[in-house]
């Protein structure tokens, strides 16, 4: 089960019409609900539910607020990883140990991590995340600590075959 599944269910309940997909660009989720009548009230409901909404060219780019992201940080047991995921597991443990407040964490990397985890692409996530983390470390920038917790949870769920902790 992806961390985005709960957000999808909640957003889907607030959007009466239109599609809701993982954004292929820099956004997290995207919907065409603004093309339908009454989109202002839908936007207001989404914002009250804790989502950031940006309307561009008839599409709504959706992302979580800091509070929404913080709510995803649920600890999960950390069994030893499968051998082919050891590098990702080590990177995730490094990130999860970093006490960075959510407001300082790079939101783009948090969103990217959620999208890769949602797709179940652990090797792609490592290939995309590792160089970004190295770049942030070289520049002395805050790291996406929550991403580490999400990765560890996803790896534990995959190993155990447990869809949720």
Structure explained in plain terms:
It is built from 7 helices and 4 strands; from the N terminus they run αββαββααααα. By secondary structure, it is of the alpha+beta class. The chain has 2 domains: 3-64, no CATH class; 69-160, no CATH class. The longest helix is centred in the last third of the chain and has 18 residues, at 122-139.
Highlighted features:
single chain; 165 residues; alpha+beta; 2 domains; 4-stranded antiparallel sheet; 7 helices; 4 strands; 11% strand; elongated
Strand arrangement in the largest pleated sheet: 1-2-4-3
Order of helices and strands: HEEHEEHHHHH
| Strand composition percent | 5-15%
Per DSSP, the total helix count is 7
Shape: elongated
Topology:
Elements (H helix, E strand, L loop, with lengths): L2 H12 L5 E3 L6 E3 L7 H10 L2 E6 L2 E6 L1 H6 L14 H11 L10 H13 L2 H18 L5 H16 L5
Antiparallel strand pairs: 1-2, 2-4, 3-4
Helix pairs in contact: 4-7, 5-6, 5-7
Q: Could you give a short description of this structure?
A:
With 165 residues, this protein is an alpha+beta fold. It has helices spanning 3-14, 39-48, 66-71, 86-96, 107-119, 122-139, 145-160, and strands at residues 20-22, 29-31, 51-56, 59-64.
């Amino acid at each position: 089960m992806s961390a985005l599944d709960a957000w999808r269910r909640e957003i889907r309940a607030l959007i009466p019409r239109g599609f809701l997909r993982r954004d292929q660009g820099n956004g997290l989720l995207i919907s065409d609900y603004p093309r339908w009548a009454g989109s202002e009230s839908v936007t207001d409901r989404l914002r009250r539910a804790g989502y950031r909404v940006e309307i561009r060219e008839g599409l709504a780019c959706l992302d979580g607020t800091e509070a929404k992201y913080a709510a995803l940080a649920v600890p999960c047991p950390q069994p030893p990883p499968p051998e082919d995921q050891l590098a990702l597991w080590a990177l995730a443990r490094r990130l999860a140990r970093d006490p960075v407040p959510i407001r300082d964490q790079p939101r783009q990397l948090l969103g990217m991590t959620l999208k890769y985890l949602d797709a179940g692409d652990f090797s792609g996530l490592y290939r995309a995340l590792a160089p970004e983390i190295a770049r942030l470390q070289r520049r002395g920038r805050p790291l996406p600590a929550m991403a580490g917790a999400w990765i560890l949870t996803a790896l534990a769920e995959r190993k155990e075959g447990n869809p949720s902790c």
